Amino acid sequence: MSESGEIPPLPSAPAIETQVEHEFDELDVDAPPQVGIVMGSKSDMPVMEKAAAELEQRGIRHETRVMSAHREPDTVAEYAKNARMRGLRVIIAGAGLSAALPGVVAAHTDLPVIGVPLTSKTSVAGGLDALLAVTQMPPGVPVASVGVDNARNAAVLAARILSL
């Protein structure tokens, strides 16, 4: 109470925590990627960037990683095993030659895996080796496949899977 007998106004009430949290709802900072794009070598990046570009045009969050099924098998396994926990819902895997990456990823996750067979200067028959490696998976280890070097179609397919 003041000397004049009036009650001073209360200081403005602090913001309620839920009000503050609500102000951050529209920010997309912590939203996890929905699609993982992986490839066996940095030399695959020019082709696989087409998948990333298509996903960006559609407003689909994604991440891109380079990891080799042959040189870094433990890294590939851990990536695939933890993909769902990190928010991924589809994985696009590009690989050439023996094209093992899509199959190794599919062996370690229950998420849909889309394989992109890639050509290289040492490919057989314009990427036929990679196409066959991606599509000829054993029962229980499914990998969807798109055309050779057609990473954009992999992104379109991923978008359709996400829309289900």
Structural class: alpha/beta
Give the helix proportion (percent range).
25-40%
- Count the beta strands: 5
> Whole-number radius of gyration?
24 Å
The shape is elongated
Widest sheet: strand ordering: 2-1-3-4-5
What's the helix-strand series?
HEHEHEHEHEH
SSE layout and pairing:
Layout: H1 17-23, E1 35-39, H2 45-57, E2 62-66, H3 73-82, E3 90-96, H4 101-107, E4 113-118, H5 128-135, E5 144-145, H6 151-162
Helix pairs in contact: 2-6, 3-4
Kindly describe this structure.
There is one protein chain. With 164 residues, the protein is an alpha/beta fold. It is built from six helices and five strands, in the order αβαβαβαβαβα. It has helices at 17-23, 45-57, 73-82, 101-107, 128-135, 151-162, and strands at residues 35-39, 62-66, 90-96, 113-118, 144-145. Helix 5 (128-135) links the parallel strand 4 (113-118) and strand 5. Helix 2 runs parallel beside helix 6 and helix 3 packs across helix 4 (101-107). The longest helix is centred in the N-terminal third of the chain and has 13 residues, at 45-57.
Write a brief structural summary.
The chain is α/β, with parallel strands linked by helices. The chain has 6 helices and 5 strands, in the order H-E-H-E-H-E-H-E-H-E-H.
List keywords for this structure.
alpha/beta, 5 strands, five-stranded parallel beta sheet
